[in-house]
Structure formats: structure tokens, C-alpha cells
Write a structure and sequence with these properties.
By secondary structure, the chain is mainly beta. It has one helix and nine strands. The chain has one domain: Immunoglobulins (Immunoglobulin-like), CATH 2.60.40. The strands form two sheets. Strands 1, 2, 5, 8 and 9 form a five-stranded mixed beta sheet that branches. The chain has a four-stranded antiparallel beta sheet with strand order 4-3-6-7, with no helix packed on it.
Length: 137
């Protein structure tokens, strides 16, 4: 009986001492919105025309220090997105935009717009800052 109790106690201590890493399996969430700013010339803010929700834009998430994207979703008709069932920790959210620097040499449609987000509590819903992507009419 003592041996069973000792093994059970060691197992419970081992389970409770494990630090959960960023990623799926929790109760937290990250919600946000992507807007699209239409400009006549992407690199020229003065050529601004209007802002609209970025409908059906791909939004990527990176868990913790991972290198590549861990998940991807699309925005709804209002430009909103949500990542659910996340553990507390650090996350990187990003979308791609037209280049606004005017110096893109490889792909002028793939400039990343990046936000760092932290979920602190087990059941927190974190609102990410609005991300603005740029396009032409």
C-alpha cells in the first residue's frame, strides 16, 4: 500500500510540475481584426483612398519561439478572426500585405504585418491590436 501511495504521489507531483508550453490544449483565445487600407500607390500614404474590413485574409499564428506558422485561419466578412483553445504564453500573429516601403525585390505582395500577443491567464481572451494591410484599387 505504501508503495502504491508513493508511486501515485510521485506521478501527481510530476504532472503538476510540468510547465505547459504555448499552443493548443488550453482555454485561452486571441481575437482581432484586420483592416485593408486602399491606396493609389502602396508606398505613398498621401494616396490614401479608404479603409475596409480585410475579408477572407489569411492570419497566421506562431506558438512561443517556434520558427514557422503553427496554424492559419481566414478572417470573416468583417475582417475579424479568432484563435481558440490556447495555453497561456507568448504568440506571434501576422498577415501579409502589399509592400509599402517600395523596396521589395522578391514579392511585393508578401510584406508581413506582425503583432506579438501574450495570454497571461488560463481562460483569458486577449484582443490583439488591429492589423492594417495595404492594397490598391
Amino acid at each position: 500500500m505504501k508503495r502504491w501511495f508513493s508511486l501515485t504521489l510521485v506521478g501527481l507531483i510530476g504532472l503538476t510540475s510540468c510547465k505547459k508550453e504555448e499552443g493548443e490544449g488550453g482555454f485561452g483565445s486571441i481575437v482581432g481584426k484586420v483592416e485593408k487600407e486602399i491606396r493609389l500607390i502602396p508606398a505613398n500614404p498621401v494616396s490614401f483612398q479608404f479603409v475596409t474590413p480585410a475579408r477572407d485574409a489569411e492570419v497566421y499564428i506562431i506558438y512561443g519561439d517556434n520558427v514557422g506558422p503553427d496554424d492559419r485561419i481566414r478572417t470573416n466578412f468583417e475582417g475579424e478572426y479568432a484563435f481558440y483553445n490556447l495555453q497561456p504564453g507568448d504568440y506571434t500573429i501576422y498577415v501579409y500585405s502589399r509592400d509599402t516601403t517600395g523596396v521589395a525585390q522578391v514579392d511585393p505582395d508578401r510584406m508581413p504585418i506582425v503583432q506579438k500577443v501574450k495570454i497571461e491567464g488560463r481562460k483569458d481572451e486577449v484582443s490583439a491590436p488591429i492589423m492594417t494591410i495595404y492594397d490598391t484599387p
